[in-house]
Amino acid sequence: MRPSRRPRSHHLVTGLLLALVISACPPERRALTRAEVESITFTRLERFSSEAELDAHLARVEAIRSSLATGGGPVLGCGGEHADGEPSPQTPDEPEPSITHNQEAGVDEGDIVKAVGDWFVVLRRGRLFTVRQGGGALEPVTQVDAYAPGFTRGSWYDEMLVYGRRIVVVGYSYSVNATEIGLFRLDDAGGLTHEATHFISSSDYYSSRNYTSRLVGGTLVFYLPYHPLSGGTVSLPSTRAWVRGNETTAWRPILSRLEVFKPVQTTLQPMLHTVVRCDLDAAEFTCTASALMAPVSRTFYVSRDAVYLWVSPGFEWWAVEDGTRSTARDSVVYRLPLDGSEPGALRARGVPIDQFSFRQNEDGHLDALLVATGQGDSMWGPELTRGDGRFALLRAPVAAFDAELRGLRAEHFTVLPGPVTGTLRNRFVGDHVLWGSGDPTNKGSSRGEHAVWVTDVRVPSDVHRLALEHSVTRLEPLGSTGALVVGQDVFGLTLSTLALTEGGPVRSDSLSRPGATQGETRSHGFFFKPDGTGGGVMGLPVRMQGGSWSHLRYGSAEVSFLRVDAGLRLSSLGALEASTEARDDGCTRSCTDWYGNARPIFYRDRVFALMGYEFVEARVTESAVEESSRVSYLQPGR
What we know:
The protein is built from 4 helices and 46 strands. It is mainly beta. The strands form 10 sheets. Strands 6, 7, 8, 9, 14, 15 and 16 form a 7-stranded antiparallel beta sheet that branches. It has a 6-stranded mixed beta sheet with strand order 1-10-11-18-19-17, with no helix packed on it.
């Protein structure tokens, strides 16, 4: 069953068409008056003082928007300035290391496969599967629907987290217009029992790069956007639970009007940016929320103690009648602590590319790599963001975040060079940040600049440009002092390693795979297992036909393994190949692998590959990866 709204594959086409429209903007029409701007923009981060104040604010927004519609409206995306250089109730046992390639240690991310003791749990195409891997063998055990028994409304099921024996499935229901959270229990025999399903009203959270769910200790964390105005009616995020019989309980607000923070940025398309925290140690599934009102365009990042939300004007750009520049049109970066304490904010310039543009540093700073303009990390925003050769590194003191909304000074920014063309990639590795560009959409494409830029955040003005023979479509850490650069040239896929030394970055080695391309675009498609000597083994999905988004139409990529020695030299260990998925799997829900379907897995000194409906275990020698067992976990007739 397809969702009632358009499938997400249309969003890429829509985004590209929108980019073309923006490149040919019409003349700007009526501007906002200074009084209009001041009537809907606040100067400090504070909550609405009454329900009536919030309703009155949204009524003013609606009135101004209506007047623009009848007397000449705003031009979205036109006339914008560039940055000027400032740019279960029981607590589980101690968990084993995550098999997910997470951005932050201690912050687990939603994925399609998780390890729970002697079990793998897989989320694919609307179903949950368990595979026993204890005892040295692979044995498929259970497959169940990833939704409540009898729930007939269509949803997309995207991400999964585990906490002890509790399995949390996260999806989006277009029929309910809500994020769907399914709770399942894994028993000692590998069976799965549905416990409950909850809905949180929201707009679609989908991102081509980011993940909406995180797990920090026993706290489940979501970022969810929400439109408070619909047809002139004001509403707030609410929750409801599914009960048997395909019925749901009544909607209950998850926060009140008095808990919403006023907009400090001018917007006529207000979005409630909502951070939801759910306590998985509680006897009952309970959630709390924080919400702030701001423009639509956002990028979020989760550290071990806070959610950072960067909100920029995006396509929403309003001219002001007197022609002066208003600070309400700047970007604002918000910090929402995970312990529920008061949020803080800072005014900034520029925008991040995606969640990997951030890192909360142990020295008490938020580091962020910025470009002049961008669209945030929702839908296909990062793919539409361009650097135009103008970048900046922000180093903001975490202690400076407060309700007074201070403006960051020039000393907090360092202007940086960078690529002019191509889809941008960036990553923090140890004390360094790396950035470059490429185009992962087509097999053999070498579009993007054949170079990577590197700087040490402690001395950000000392920028190094390292020429490459290929573009940059993936950047990954190899420990804290090494980095991997993956990209394309006209002949195929190339991987290069960099040593991040005190004297500057140095190219260490490169390895090419003619005729190949990346098999997965998401960060979770890669994993590096260090060996304690400075080297290790890494796995990466690779395709010999089709592009890196081919999992949306075809079966799985193969998984290639490489050894990295202490000098960051690369040697191929070979690949585990996927079988052709020819049979009908009987899929009725969530039948597109938007989050990929291939993963290298390193678990308990064993090496596996998830490829479509197959698990493969391998033995890794000094020179090769050798398949030892293979099993399909899709049961016949299901």
